[in-house]
Design brief:
mainly beta, Jelly Rolls, eight-stranded antiparallel sheet
Amino acid sequence: MSNVKPDALYWEVLYEKVYVDACLYICALYSRGGEGERVTYTFDGDVDISEIRLVFDNDMNRKYHNMPFNYPLVETKFKLPKTLIKEYRIDGVNTAGEKFTLAVQDNHQRFVRHNVSWRVREISFTPISTCGAEDFRLFNFEVK
């Protein structure tokens, strides 16, 4: 049994628990929040987490439909979508109080997968900054 707790009222969270080949997937299907907010999964006891998958909003409604896979750092013609989450942190804690942290400071991808070997009772996603948007948009937060 698990539950998803948005830490602030502004997160709109839809979630589901899915079992595939006896693996537990917990998915936040769409979340939108502001600064200082996070999405937290809490389990009844410690669970093994081997993979964390994230899908961010890359603003498919933007006027320029290009997201080049390779561009110079000083590029002015092409840019990352403002809605893309650039910096975030994932924290986990188990029943013994042992803490796990994963911090990303320069994300440029829509789909991100982290392989971890954590045993946790609670796991949280905390967005820190975007590429220009004021709110944070997370389409998917899966733990497996």
